[in-house]
Amino acid sequence: MREKMISVKDLNYKVEDNDILKFINFDIYKNDFVGIIGPNGAGKSTLIKILIGEIENYSGEIEINGKIGYVPQKDEFDKSFPIRAFEVVLMGMYKDVGLFKKYKKKHYNKVKSTMKMLGIDYLYNRNVGKLSGGEYQRLSLARALVSDPDILILDEPEAGVDSKAQIKIYNILEELSKKGMTIILVSHDISMVVKKANTVMCLNKTLHCHKNAVDMTAEDLKKIYSEELELLVHINKPLKVVSKND
Amino acid sequence: MIELFSYDFMIYAILASILASFSASLLSNYIVLKKMEFIGEGAAHTAFGGIALAILFDLNVDFISIITAILFGISIYFISKKEKVNENSVIGMLLSFSMALGVIFLYLKPGYTPELSSYLFGDILMVNIEDVKILSLVALIILSFIILFNKELKYYAYNSKMAKNFGVPTNLINFIFLIIVSIVVVTSVKIIGIILVTSLLITPGVIGKLFAKSLNQMILISSISGVFAGFFGIIIAYFINIPPGPSIVVTLFSIFLISYLINYIRAKAFVKKHG
């Protein structure tokens, strides 16, 4: 039997009488690569924030077995902040060190090896303000991975990144998944999610589908995107979905 | 010049100025990086209410203004924890409220209040050995705070929300930081003045940021700039017989202008060399 990593039961979240998430139920197992898709305002980022503990005033039950590594959608920071890449990655191991203690050699070595694995070791001493969007995104991924998480959660890692860098990130995720990591990916890139993830969740306030990526149909997508998207090619192939505005 | 050091009051003033500048410069790094420049202004103007209250009832000015400043720090922390009220809005409201109270208190005080302009712009003659002791203690506390919480302060200033996600106790850091800023402002008021103390909480950090590649470098550069301005500002004030506050601020701003110019020339030269 596969090990259950995350179990969510009857999750509801409201902000001033507005339902943000309604009756969400799902289980995620070890080595799952789950893609969460949905239109803007569907509650994807909120769900992530609940899972990582940033939002606490929800109702329902959430059980998490294992350490979470988190890659945010966007890191808001001052580009002229005098901080180097390795210092940002070290933040990922803060809990191991805690107050009043310094990072040790093993922590620096871990940062080096993780950055090397992601192909960004050449950025080690570089000031973060000088990194490109793609480089910064991989740096965020390194920060999430240094703590050896059991579950990796990413919130739109493709946002503000060029297509070449996007492919790099997705390939890294595929590699990590092959190595046994549980991955939860929120994305607007439906075709990439269907291609790389093995399970897809369709979210729009509530869960409209939770199934294997290969079983996704145009109907599943219509349920959550309705008027916003026109579906061109689908069924058992990478779905190619374009916006009517494109 | 040597005669300067033969007067006790001058030695106290120089020491007070250096210590106040050093403490404020250390904090200025985080204030500039976190873009919370308004905090110093708020704490200083709030202290005015406390000082006026002490003058009205003939209480100990130092004690009352420190209490007012601590209350200010605590109020900002708790009110701005509610998402609907922005930290700067709270500071703006408390600032004018305390100033208003200060003016009311002073109007209620019968007779002339000679100390007021000294509190507004600083006064060499107001500083005594007790102030030097308090400023030394404050400088020591801030230096210890920065050394002990070095990585926490760095992440707090870099991205507080993200730092919290990674387990950094940002609420605790924020709370201590607000209180410490308020205390530095109040203890520096005698030498620099309410109106001008904000400069010391911003300018050294801005100078440091122009040159630094790391936060520790920034702390070092800002501290040197602040202490330099604190020392020469007070000497200039003595020789041309002006209040120390404006003299320190003008010296500090001159350092900023020179630094900015050097940085600009360096950047131009770099572009020319590397295309």
Task: Summarize this structure as a short list of keywords or feature phrases.
heterodimer; A: Rossmann fold; 2 domains; six-stranded mixed β-sheet; three-stranded antiparallel β-sheet; 8 helices; 30% helix; B: mainly alpha; ABC transporter involved in vitamin B12 uptake, BtuC; 11 helices; 81% helix
How would you describe this protein?
The complex is a heterodimer of chains A (246) and B (275). Chain A has 246 residues and is an alpha/beta fold. Chain A has two domains: 1-66 and 150-246, P-loop containing nucleotide triphosphate hydrolases (Rossmann fold, 3-Layer(aba) Sandwich), CATH 3.40.50; 78-148, no CATH class. In chain A, 30% of the residues lie in helices and 29% in strands. Chain A has eight helices and eleven strands. Chain A has helices spanning 44-51, 85-90, 94-97, 105-117, 133-145, 163-178, 190-196, 218-225; strands at 4-15, 18-29, 33-37, 59-64, 68-71, 151-155, 182-186, 199-204, 206-212, 229-233, 240-243. The N and C termini of chain A lie far apart (45 Å). Mean pLDDT of chain A is 87; it is low at 231-237 and 242-246. With 275 residues, chain B is mostly helical. In chain B, helix 2 (38-56) runs parallel beside helix 4, helix 2 packs antiparallel against helix 9 and helix 9 (197-211) crosses helix 10. Classes of the chains: A alpha/beta (246), B mainly alpha (275). Chain A binds chain B through residues 52-54, 70, 72, 75-78, 80-84, 87-88, 90-92, 94-95, 97-100, 102-103, 127, 143, and chain B through 33, 35, 148-149, 151-152, 154-155, 157-159, 161-169, 209, 212-215, 217-218.
